TrEMBL record:
Domain BTB: 398-475
PANTHER family for this protein: BTK-BINDING PROTEIN-RELATED, RCC1 AND BTB DOMAIN-CONTAINING PROTEIN 1 ISOFORM X1
Entry-linked Gene3D superfamilies: Potassium Channel Kv1.1, Chain A, Regulator of chromosome condensation 1/beta-lactamase-inhibitor protein II
Organism domain of life: Eukaryota
Protein's UniProt keywords contain Glycoprotein: no
InterPro entries from the UniProt entry: BTB/POZ_dom (IPR000210), RCC1-like_dom (IPR058923), RCC1/BLIP-II (IPR009091), Reg_chr_condens (IPR000408), Signaling_Regulatory_Domain (IPR051625), SKP1/BTB/POZ_sf (IPR011333)
Entries under Pfam families matching the protein: BTB (PF00651), WD40_RLD (PF25390)
Repeat region (RCC), residues: 110-161, 163-215, 216-268, 269-320, 321-370
Protein name, entry field: Regulator of chromosome condensation (RCC1) and BTB (POZ) domain containing protein 1
Keywords attached to this entry: Repeat
Amino acid sequence: MAFARPAHTLRQRPAGSYLRTQRAVPRRSIRESRCFRAASITEWEETIDSPLRQQICKPVTACTKPNADMVDFGKWPLFALLSPQDLASIRQACIFGSAANEAIYTTQNNEVFVFGMNSSNCLGTGDNQSTIIPRRLDVLCGKRIVDLSYGSGPHILVCNEDGEVYSWGHNGYSQLGNGNAIQGVAPVQVCMELLAKKVVQVACGSHHSMALTSDGEVFCWGYNNCGQVGSGTTANQSVPRRVSATLQSKVVVSIAAGQSSSMAVTDNGHVYCWGYNGTGQLGIGNTGNQLMPCRLVFAHPVCIIQVVLGYAHTLALSDQGVLYAWGANSHGQLGIGNKSNQTAPVKVGTNERMVEVTACHSTNISAAKSQSGQVYMWGLCRGQSLLSPHLTHFSCTDDVFACFSNPPVMWRFLSVDFSLLSNLADTSCRKHFRTMFQSHWNENSKDMIEIDQFSYAVYRAFLEYLYTDNVDLPPEDAIGLLDLATSYCENRLKKLCQHIIKRGITVDNAFLLLSAAVRYEAEDLEDFCFRFCVNHLTDVTQTDAFWQMDGMLLKDFIVKAGRSGGFRN
């Protein structure tokens, strides 16, 4: 039967893995199912609103992963130097420098290009010549860069899919990690202790560097006048050295660097900080520098999933969407309604659940995005101080930095994807549904086809995805769409659904989402939900969803939670 739900082909997981998907789990509908009927291909297509159908014939547009926010590179003045063809080829990009006068980007063919002023040889072209014409960095072409960060010199760090780290640019404080203080005119691999490691994230302070490995270890090097490399001294570090002490037995999942301070977030949501603390940006209740990592203590137990550092302030986001801020506040960059510095975390008053928070160590601006897609900004916005989060008309936080940051740098290495929107999309989508009305299908002889495995909202979202490559659903409906995507092996749609569900997780629905992740073989979502449940174990075990969980799944959860230390006092 056309559109009948195909049988799942369950993949085998390694022995001893958590919550094996072969076990049956009773399905619970999120909403009352509405039948979705179609008498012909025309009726299928008429379920799509006319504005949505009009999008099909628009030119190909770049959109950020993973939530498909539209990116307009034209908002960054420096990109006006590129031709339309060059702009259309960009896969990743970053604008940096003291005046936002340098840029690096990769193409869909994994070529790497740079252009701009070339301060301190930061373009890595082998000379000190500026250029308005993009120049190719042959040494990095084909390396598949996954992360990039820049300092104030500036110096540049990148890491690729293989976990290799390359550095170039300003090196007055050995921040390139090559054992000397000689300027780096071209990208060179950072070896020493990182040679045997796979690096998954890099971060640059003003003149120091950080790297996070796949096994959760943190390495630092460079300028250390305030203890920002975490070695316990103030001596500069010319090569990467692991930050141990209180991080010795911890698994770090993300890192961040300010001008002269460093932070790390562990897998259990704890935050560790070290380095300069003159305006309270470490959040430890005082303004004394820290030469070694110390754990940040919040007024109430929270699980932090993201930390970003501005010029002298810090923002953090909890797994329940609560935003915290501390540090310098002379421009209102904390968003708390005044200009008083804060030496300990305080809540930023917003009425929405936040899913992303942004800042950059070269600016005093802050931005955040809510679960509903609203983008807010505050702090020093083009010379004006906004003391509280201000609602914008932007669809992504990157636009805030392009239009209101001074300088207009990028706060992250921006990765883009090219939606498959073209004139051919209309034809391909029609063919997708037209096949069920061909002579070899049983439905060809029926006047009406009834499909009732999923709700109307889920089917409509599926059609919208096929036509536009985008998804717009609340988290509760995204579970059904995840099931449908699994049924039809739409892997990219599965990833989009998982991203939506992550943003909607709460104490009340955590176990429901965990069960769904197991059922639909969404490993990344499963791990995310498991960590959330462990970090909020007392609260989630009091919910109805916990006691309604399948017995075998519940048993496996308890076993793994015990192994991960979830029941420790």
